[in-house]
Amino acid sequence: MKKTDYIGFFDSGLGGLSVLKHALQVFPEENYIFFADCGHFPYGEKTPEQVREYSIASCDRMYEKGIKALVIACNTATSAAIHEMREKYQIPVISMEPAVKPAMEADPTGKIIVMATPGTIASGRYKRLIDRLGCNDRLINIPCKGLADLVEKGDFESEEIYGYIKDIFVPHASERVTGIVLGCTHYSFVRNAVEKTAANVFKDMPEIYDGMYGTVRQLGNLLRKDDMLSESGKSEVIVMTSGTEEDRKLIEYILKK
Ligand code: DGL
Q1: How far is CA 57 from CA 34, 52, 142, in A?
Q2: What is the model's pLDDT at position 179?
């Protein structure tokens, strides 16, 4: 394995690009492959068995190319398949999980809204995370059915997105919400809409938490530990998708934007 080998990034759709774009800023000398399983999107409303099957089939296609690390840039796929992936792939596999811990630690009593797919919220992995943190009574878990679909349309400032976010926040307007966790990589692209809507709905502006920063940090830690960070001075991104040519074009457009 060489330092210039590719790092695989995986998501069900374009959401994982938010993580990849951050990785490109932090590690601009790496080569990347991004695989979007648009042919089976959305994962958030499928069974864990289906998500496991589709995500492993997708990651197999990158693994066969000889990637040096794999980032599961999808909270839903992490919760359904990370265990199997770590057993199967003989490379560092970096996961994604809702950033509940920093949100909980930042304020000892405030409520925390967790926005994630129905699959992530219902998963055993997420339940174990909140049991471990002992913060169940402080969480407002919102399974955002359909939100990733709106993001996947590619217009992150659409009226539909603002309307959706307003509708989920308004019922909690009277609570002291101190944190909002973006627990799906698609939602990182609508952070602006989340912030603007939260500023209008809540009395005090909650802090926004996004797990992608920890994931990219962990990627760097693991590559550094194995002396596998690239110093080639250049970077390439290959896009792969199980979807249509239109899906690919949108992914490439968002990547460059
Ligand atoms: N981007 C994915 C996540 O982080 C899920 C989107 C979906 O396929 O429903 O959970």
Answers
A1: 14, 8, 29
A2: 98
Count of structural domains within the chain: 2
The mean per-residue pLDDT over the stretch 29-36 comes to: 98
Q: Cα-flanking dihedrals φ and ψ of residue 174, to 5°?
A: -85, -5
At residue 129 the predicted structure's pLDDT band, cuts being 50, 70 and 90, is very high
Q: Which of 38, 59, 144, 184 is catalytic?
A: 184
Whether 158 contacts 49, CB under 8 Å: no
163: pLDDT strictly greater than 90: yes
Please report, for the domain that includes residue 129, its CATH number: 3.40.50.1860
Domain membership of residue 180 as a residue range: 100-210
Measured from the CA of 116, which atom of ligand 1 is nearest? 10
- The Cα 82–Cα 235 span in angstroms is 27
123 and 190 housed in the same domain? yes
Q: List, for residues 65-88, the tens digit of each pLDDT value.
A: 999 999 999 999 999 999 999 999
Amino acid at 106: A
For the CA of 120, the closest atom of ligand 1 is 10
